[in-house]
Amino acid sequence: MNAKPTVDSELELIHDAEPKLTIDDLCFAATNYLESRQVDDIRRAYYFAEVAHQEQKRRSGEPYIMHPLAVAHVLTMMHMDHECIMAGLLHDVIEDTEVSREGLAAEFSEEVALLVDGVSKLAKATFETKQHAQAESLRKMLLAMSEDIRVIIVKLADRLHNMRTLGHLGPEKRRRIAEETLEIYAPIAQRLGMNVMRCELEDLGFHVLYPLRYRVLADVVRKARGNRKEIVSKITESIQHRMEQEGLTADIEGREKNLYSLYQKMVRKKLSFSEVLDVFAFRVIVDDVDSCYRMLGVVHNLYKPVQNTFKDYIAIPKANGYQSLHTVLFGPHAVPVEIQIRSRDMDQMAEAGVAAHWLYKSGENQSGNLAHRLARQWLQGLLEMQKGSGDSIEFLENLRIDLFPEEIYVFTPTGKIMTLPRGATAVDFAYAVHTDVGNHCVAAKVGRHLVPLSTQLETGQSVEIITTGSSHPNASWLNFVSTAKARTNIRHYLKQLRNDEAALLGRHMLTKNLQAFSSSIDALPEERVDEVMAEFEVETLNQLFEEIGLGDRSALLVAQKLIHGDDEVNNTAQQPLMIAGTEGMVVSFARCCHPIPGDPIHGFISAGRGIVVHQDYCKTTMSLRGQSEKWLDVAWAPDIKREFSVEVLVHVKNQRGVLATIAAAVSENNSNIENVIVDERDSEYTDLRLTIGVLDRKHLANIIRRLRRIEMVERITRLKQ
Fold it and tell me: Is the residue at 399 inside a domain?
């Protein structure tokens, strides 16, 4: 009895099935479309890589050169240009050998060196975690894409061959590579319209991550294909007969989803195998655009269309350049028949995307290729995204959001079509129009009706954004925006705002401390200020103010350094810092004790957060009392206008309408309940934990007195640590 193959053995079988290529095979394939001198350059690049990798072996034991040779063969099958194929052969020499980028440029060309360097990881850099290393390497590669999109095509070919040969790696590493492929590289291939590449990457990743599900689904598909031959043949003959009557010629072929797409559809829509496979799908390929629409009329006359299933991706292409007509029909025996109609050029574009019709010449634009134009727009968006991202991890998070979500199509007031991810809001639309529009939007009109900025948009809507010069991004927008561009720009603005507020606060704090020494920043010699800035490794005085405001430096120590240098000085009495509640994000009020005007307070300087204001008796800060350099004397300003949150515990009898009565009483005293937590103690009593907004202790006392007069209230206390 034969044992079932294990996952490892299956992967090794896939690896062993890989053809053993030679440089002669590669050059023979390249001669079909490249000039002889270009083929000679490819051969020269191979011998250079072979020497560079001569001491290296793959995990399988075969010479390492077999991997770059296979990558180059993938690129040749895509009919890429000779420099791209050379980069495929050389893509690991900078990362894994002693060859430098400069040496590569001198030996071949600057273009080849750019491609190879773009694909290479940041191997010699040191990062905190593997995630940081992966994110930073990916960011480097994607930025290199903006200079030459062939960088990502080489990387995808590299990843494809690595996925084909995972069998000799350990299970954990296999899963990590497969997850990264499904999360990043397969979506990038789809975003660039490279459907064939995307399908193989997905199925290989699916096979590694879920081997049993893959095997079961593959068996079901194979059996269903055999069972459906008769009805597929009948539908094909019917279409061909009607097509000939109309004088049209076309190629008709059955279309099958790849296994991973089937699996995703089953999971997303909670369908069984039979429900997913119960759709008969066909691709009809005609000669030109006009014939696409004529063929649509043919199939709609043959079978009745299902309502709301027609999609015209020719008039409105997908974000990756994909064009086709999609329709679903009621076929024989009322089975659904899905049909895609496209021209031959569209079909080639749908399969190869940016790699279709590759005629790359330095300095020329691929203006005739829709996929290239859209890819360039996407890459421009990536550049904007990375400029606003705080670090590589945030950039990677934004990239995952951006990578080919389901799309909607909405219109500007002038009729321009905007493509957005499903779930996009009016704010996402505003940022898609222009960053300045997003930064200054205050409201939106959808179909001439005013709607909140958080409104989710739907396909076909016309959207108008209303802006004012005085409005700015709000931190709450981050709770509902869905596009990476909107998220990045909002975060960038808030970060800049925080830094500006920190600089103002830092200047104020330093001024206060210098006054204690009877001096000021303007009165100090410029040379002395420059010396201290150089010692603290800051380039500008504003940067020093920011570090003080954010709590990264002590204002007192900076003042002492400016006045006395390194001489030790006893702490000098100074005026407390006035807290008005309008300092912005660099002054926050502790949630553990909820200080309000009238409470005795102190400030704790928290690195990166600025000043956190606590009540004097707050238990949270008791353990930090020994860190005297982090404490700051603060006091309430006399003219505070804003409200502060405070928590009170109200012990009440369980009676109908008690919460409404309390809410009305709070409202009568010009306050508002921000949050309520109900804790039912027993059948008779309940504790209400209320968070309310007050101006000061006097305002809070008035509210408490009013609540105590309610018959259902047993007792009320302010919550403290």
Answer: no
